[in-house]
Amino acid sequence: MSTEDIEITVEGTPNPNAAKFVLNHEIPCGGSKSYLGAAAAADNPLAARLFAIDGVRALLFVENFITVTKTPEADWETVVGRVEETIRAGLEL
After folding, report:
1. Would you call 62 helix, strand, or coil by DSSP?
2. What is the rounded CA–CA span in Å between residue 21 and residue 68?
3. Is residue 13 within 8 Å of residue 31, measured between CB atoms?
4. pTM to 2 decimals?
5. What is the total count of domains within the chain?
6. pLDDT (tens digit per residue) in 52-70
7. Residue 7 phi/psi, 5° resolution?
8. Helix/strand/coil (H/E/C) assignment for every residue in 40-62
């Protein structure tokens, strides 16, 4: 899969500090996984890369989407672009 094949749609959630990044492909994570911090993401290279983004607090991986929860201080305008870039780079084969 190349980065051109990956389409990402960002959807809001009831939590103003969380957004759902929906992909047109399955995410290879072995089912539903929740990460509440960078230490918990050691077994998932994509999750570890997402936690390297300033302001990312928690992640939920489910089939074809990733819900990203940010810190209240983080700005969505900055976080969204970095998350999309990181997902594309992390899924490129």
Report:
1. strand
2. 8
3. no
4. 0.91
5. 1
6. 999 999 999 999 999 999 9
7. -105, 135
8. HHCCCHHHHHHHCCCCEEEEEEE
